[in-house]
Structures are given as C-alpha cells and as structure tokens.
Amino acid sequence: MGRRKVLRKKEQEGLFTLIVAVLLLWGGMRLVMGAFGYVETHAWVRVAAIGTVVGAIVVLGIAGLLVLLDALTKYRSRTAARSIVAPLEMTPTDYEQYCAGLLERAGWKAMTTAANGDQGADVIAELDSVKLVIQCKRYVQPVGNKAVQEVIAAKVYYGASMAAVVATAPYTQSAIALAKKSHVLLLSHVDLPQLHKVLLH
Q1: Which portions of the chain are predicted below pLDDT 70?
Q2: At what angle do helices 2-35 and 43-83 cross, to 10 degrees?
C-alpha cells in the first residue's frame, strides 16, 4: 500500500511537471511567432502568452525555492550533528552539563551543582517524587569505589531518594559490589534518556 502511494505521488508530480512544460512551450512559441509575424497577434493572445510564461516561471521559482529550503534544512541538520562534541572530548564541567541536559530533555528538572563544595553530587535531578543525585565521571579508565562513596555521601547530604554514578568508562568490580550493596545506580550517559522507565520497574 505504501509503495502504491509513493508511485501515485510520483505520477502526479510527473503530470504536473509535464503540464507546466507544455504551457511554457505554448506561451513561448506564441511570443516568438508573434514577434516574427507568423501569427496574428491579437491583444488577448499576447496577454495569454505572457501570463502563461510568467505563471510557469513563478511556479517553477516556488518549486525551486522549496527545494532550496529543504536542502538548507538538511544541511543545517547534518552540520549540527557533526558539531556535537563527543563526551570524552568535553571538559568535566561540560560533561556534567551534558548529563543534566539529557535529563532535562527526558522530562526531569535537573541542575548542576557548584564546582566547589558539591558534597559528592555533580547533578541533582527531580521527577515526580524521585530526587536523584548524580556523580559524573568523564573517565577513560574504569571508575572505582571513590565515585560510589562520594555519591552515597551526596545522597545523605541532599536528602535524595536515589543515587547514581554516570560515566564514560566501565566500572571496577569493587565499585560494582559497593554500588549493589548501597543501591547506587551505575550508568552511562546513554542510559539517561530512558532512566525514568528504569526507575518505574
């Protein structure tokens, strides 16, 4: 069914283009032949010919403009996609803001904390009755116990109901064991857009 619709649309576009081409050709021939005296150029013929040519030019101009706008939109989308900085290329502060932004777009109310005196939380986020503190780690090497310990302290300090570490790297076995005992989520930034669904289960 979808393929038939596509074919029908292409047929309609082809017919429209053909009609425009015929009208343009007819008007042009009238003007040229009239200019050289091959046909009797009554006033209405001249008006019709000029109107046909102008109308065809306007239609083709609008079509060209729409194609140009579509191309510009796609170009801007591709440029924006290329301009996105990879998490590992961000500064630690930018990475914290990036994580907060992912949560914001997923419906959370999220904010980053002050660089000094954050008490182990880089991001504080709220959704419904859930208050979440997050320790962000833009690491290449595996993340260890310290990050988990820091976010446990942040959970107590901020009175949060949940705590998580979000990192660009995997976690050590000791960090995984401590997180399991203390009910801390060990995540990647790619998990944040769907985090609310995880918490519902």
Answers
A1: 1-15, 17-18, 21-22, 24-61, 63-85, 115-117, 200-201
A2: 140
- Residue 146 sits in a domain of what CATH number? 3.40.1350.10
Last residue of a domain, one of 63, 83, 103: 83
Burial class (CB in 10 A: 0-12, 13-18, 19+), 127: middle
- Where in the sequence is the domain holding 77, given as residue range(s)? 2-83
* Tens of pLDDT, residues 170-199: 999 999 999 999 999 999 999 999 998 877
CB 91 within 8 A of CB 121: no
- pTM exceeding 0.85: no
Q: What is the DSSP letter of 91?
A: -
Same domain for 193 and 116: yes
Evaluate whether 185 touches 164 at the Cβ level (below 8 Å): yes
